[in-house]
Amino acid sequence: MTDRSLEELREALRQRDQFFTLSLELFCRVDLDGRFLQVNATFKQLLGYSEKQLVGHHYSKLVLAEDRP
């Protein structure tokens, strides 16, 4: 990679992270197994969970039992 392409990548990642962090929408990242990797502040605030209560746990923790397949 050239210095320019590395700088463009860094800037794109910075913008993505800023969007994720500052968004008023609920955003999360999950792994292929459905476990939370990251949640934004709005996600935590509106759902009433801390990051520690979510990260590493399966998303089904937030789905009512009767709504699970």
What does this structure look like?
The chain has 69 residues and is mainly alpha-helical. The protein has one domain: PAS domain (Beta-Lactamase, 2-Layer Sandwich). The chain is 45% helix and 10% strand. It has helices spanning 3-22, 41-47, 51-54; strands spanning 28-30, 36-39. A two-stranded antiparallel ribbon has the order 1-2. The chain starts with a helix and ends in a 15-residue tail after the last helix. The model has no long low-confidence stretch (mean pLDDT 95).
Quick overview of this protein structure:
The chain has 69 residues and is mainly alpha-helical. It has helices spanning 3-22, 41-47, 51-54; strands spanning 28-30, 36-39.
Q: What distinguishing features does this structure have?
A:
Beta-Lactamase, 2 strands, 69 residues, mainly alpha, single chain, two-stranded antiparallel sheet
Strand content: 5-15%
CATH architecture: 2-Layer Sandwich
Overall number of structural domains: 1
In CATH, what is the class? Alpha Beta
Counted beta strands? 2
How many angstroms separate the termini? 45 Å
Supply Rg: 15 Å
The CATH homologous superfamily is termed: PAS domain
Furnish the topology, listing elements before pairings.
Elements: H1 3-22, E1 28-30, E2 36-39, H2 41-47, H3 51-54
Antiparallel strand pairs: 1-2
